[in-house]
Amino acid sequence: MLATLVSCLALLPAARVTTVWQAMGTHFAVDGLSLLFLVVVNVVGLCCAVYSIDYIGHYGGRAKFYSLLLLLVMGLNGVVLVRDIFSLYLFLEVASVAAYVLVAYNLEFDGIEASLKYLLLSVVATGMVLIGIALILMTTGTLDFAELKVALAGGAGANPVFMLAAGLFVAGFGLKAAVVPFHAWLPDAHPSAPAPISAMLSGVVIKVAGIYAIVRLFYGVYTAPAQVLRVLLLLGLISMIVGAVIAYFQTDFKRLLAYSSISQIGYILIGLGIGNWFGVVGALFHVLNHAIFKSLLFLNSGAVQYRTGTRDIREMGGLENRMRVTGVTSTFGTLSIAGVPPFGGFFSKLFIILGAVVAKQWTVAFLAVFFSIFTLGYFLYLQRRVFFGKLNEKWSELKEAPAAMSIAVVALAATTLLVGVFFDSVLRGLIEPAARVLLGGN
Amino acid sequence: MTLLIGCLVLLVVAVVLLGLFQDLLYSALGLAVASIMLSIVLFQFGANIAAVFELSVCAGLITVLFVSTVSLTKDSDQKGESRLPARFLLPMLVVFAGVAFGGVTWLASHVAAAPAAAPHTFQDVFWGQRSSDVLGQIAIILAGVLGMLAVLRVKLQGGHHD
Questions:
Q1: What is the DSSP letter of A183?
Q2: Are A399 and B162 an interchain contact pair (Cβ–Cβ within 8 Å)?
Q3: CA B64, B65, B66, B70 torsion-angle sign
Q4: Is A30 strand, coil or helix?
């Protein structure tokens, strides 16, 4: 993961160039969009791997855990590197099979139940994607993105078969992205999984398996038909609202974060649904930011559970006095997810709201602002109940999380701050090349 | 055509029944019947190698593994779980058949078949054009094996860490 991450960072100066190569009969390519998602996958993957050094000890089977984690990362890297839709599906399955097992890794009832639910709903999702692929192949005779783009040029909106395939892709990849109303698996799977896997699922898997596939297909192949963008905008709005409202009522630390992920995925879809430069840049920037701060928050919840043995926020209070690193880094994550400057989350939400304003979508802009404030509200409540206030007596002997876990969360907290402070460089070096691939149709 | 339709109907019936059986052994046998029907369908479409794989691996090997495992682990005192009542079977099949018929009719009127590609041998496609898929399948099998080892491992004792 470190080697992949270093390679990605080395490629950053050439982010505007598409590098294509052929291996094992398949075309692979790195363009600005792939590079953004590669960075996201490998930054979060590396932090989760470091965090797991201490965390996974009490579960046992360390070698199996790391092998599955590597397969998960390999599958996700494969998804963003391939240039044909069937290979994308195949690498998605590699990542998914590893994810099903990792969700149940604690071998407890809720983990196994959540894993089965995730598996069953994912089978429905991949079934829909496969039918969509079959329809496309039957009609065009190709699965290569570039050839498909030519085949669909101008006629996608008028051809009912292509639009049926588009509907199946929206539902299938929407289920992978846990977009409302396809989100039923996420609130169980994310809290039940070990914390580093929750971080991978929420920070990376739902984005690569869902959002990346959606943008690659609907912007790169379908060239963003208006009907699909309207659907994405609607799904985004529903997800943003439903996720935030349900998150507000949660008392389980990780379940609250899980519902919040649904809400934040809604923001990303809103940006993509708006479809203008600000919207797309904001959506892609939010992919990066959400990956960092949500992984950070899940790892922090794992550190709290590691020490206290509970996820119920009503039993906590004042933990910042005993777990200072976890408390401070959690505050960084909270401020970023709520869109408070100078953290990264502020700029991505700002761009999405600007996109809505430029598109004269006043209601969307208002709702995006309102639910950003709402998010700040319930996350401040979470921070107060868990980390601030009077220390609960039963936690008086509590210690900070082990070193490896602290190193991982500090790295992510520093990243979310640095992404905000140097947002201009991040925007020009990483986000704009990705947006150019989508809006330029490259 | 009659054989094809008959096989497709039996395939659907077998798939629905395997979800309704209360005994896992019958479900495994239902899966085998479904695989055999699918093999015949694949033969009908001229996908001979896929059909042979389906017949030998899915209908043969996997059924043997399932039946052996179920037989070895079956508890004779265990009561079957409650499943969907059998009275739903017919309506489900009718709805499925209606959706399938409607879908196929709609597709037949809208899909213009793509121009046929130049013929390739199975070996060309499998090892030459799509060999990255083989890598993906190996990775999926590896994930499955590691998953089984992880799920069946002995968990260490201990809860939270004070």
A1: -
A2: yes
A3: positive
A4: strand
- Residues in chain B with CB shorter than 8 Å from the CB of A397 are 162
ipTM of the complex: 0.78
Residue A401, C-beta contacts closer than 8 angstroms, at least 6 positions apart: A54, A303, A306, A307, A323, A325, A326, A409
Kindly state the tokens that stand for A189: 């799977």
Characterise A228 by phi-psi region: left (phi > 0), alpha (psi -120 to 50), beta (else). Answer: alpha
Instruction: Specify whether the CB–CB gap between A30 and A18 falls below 8 A.
Output: yes
Three-state DSSP at A27 gives: strand
Residue A28 three-state SS: strand
**Cα angle vertex A36, ends A30, A39, to 5°?**
95
Across A349-363, B31-45, B73-87, B122-136, which has the greatest mean pLDDT? A349-363
Residues of B in contact with A94 (CB under 8 A): 136, 139-140, 143
- Torsion angle of C-alpha atoms A246, A250, A256, A262, degrees rounded to 10: -10
Specify the pairing of strand A19-23 against strand A26-30: antiparallel
Give the C-alpha separation, A308 to A364, whole Å. Answer: 41
Distance (Å, whole) CA A14 – CA A429: 9
Q: How confident is the model at residue A442 (pLDDT cuts 50, 70, 90)?
A: very low
Query: How do residues A237-257 score in pLDDT, each as one tens digit?
Result: 999 999 999 999 988 888 999
Beta bridge partners of A135: none
Residues of B in contact with A66 (CB under 8 A): none
Q: Compute φ and ψ for B121, nearest 5 degrees.
A: -75, 160
pLDDT tens column, A122-171: 888 888 999 999 888 888 888 888 888 888 876 666 678 888 888 899 99
Contacts of A173 (CB under 8 A, 6+ apart): A125, A129, A209, A210, A213, A214, A217
| Region at A241 (left for phi over 0; alpha for psi -120 to 50; beta for the rest) | alpha
Distance from CA of B134 to the nearest CA of A (A): 9
For A386-432, what is each residue's pLDDT tens digit? 888 787 777 777 888 888 889 999 999 999 999 989 988 999 888 99
Task: Please name the member of A139, A141, A306 whose beta carbon is closest to the beta carbon of B161.
Answer: A306
Mean pLDDT, chain A, rounded, equals 87
Q: From the CA of B162, how many Å to the nearest CA of chain A?
A: 5
B residues 94-153 closer than 8 Å to A (CB): 107, 110-117, 127-137, 139-140, 142-144, 146-147, 149-151, 153
**List of chain A residues whose C-beta atoms are within 8 Å of the C-beta of residue B114:** 137-142
Crossing angle between the packed helical segments A432-439 and A32-55, to the nearest 10 degrees: 130
Find the DSSP H helices in A193-225: 195-200, 213-215
Contact A253, A304 (CB under 8 A): yes
Which pLDDT value is given to residue A129? 92
Whether residues A60 and B155 touch (CB distance < 8 A) is answered with: yes
**Whole-number pLDDT of residue A157:** 60
> What does the domain layout of chain A look like in residue ranges?
2-439
pLDDT tens-digit readout, B61-95: 888 888 887 777 766 555 555 555 666 667 777 78
Length of chain B: 162
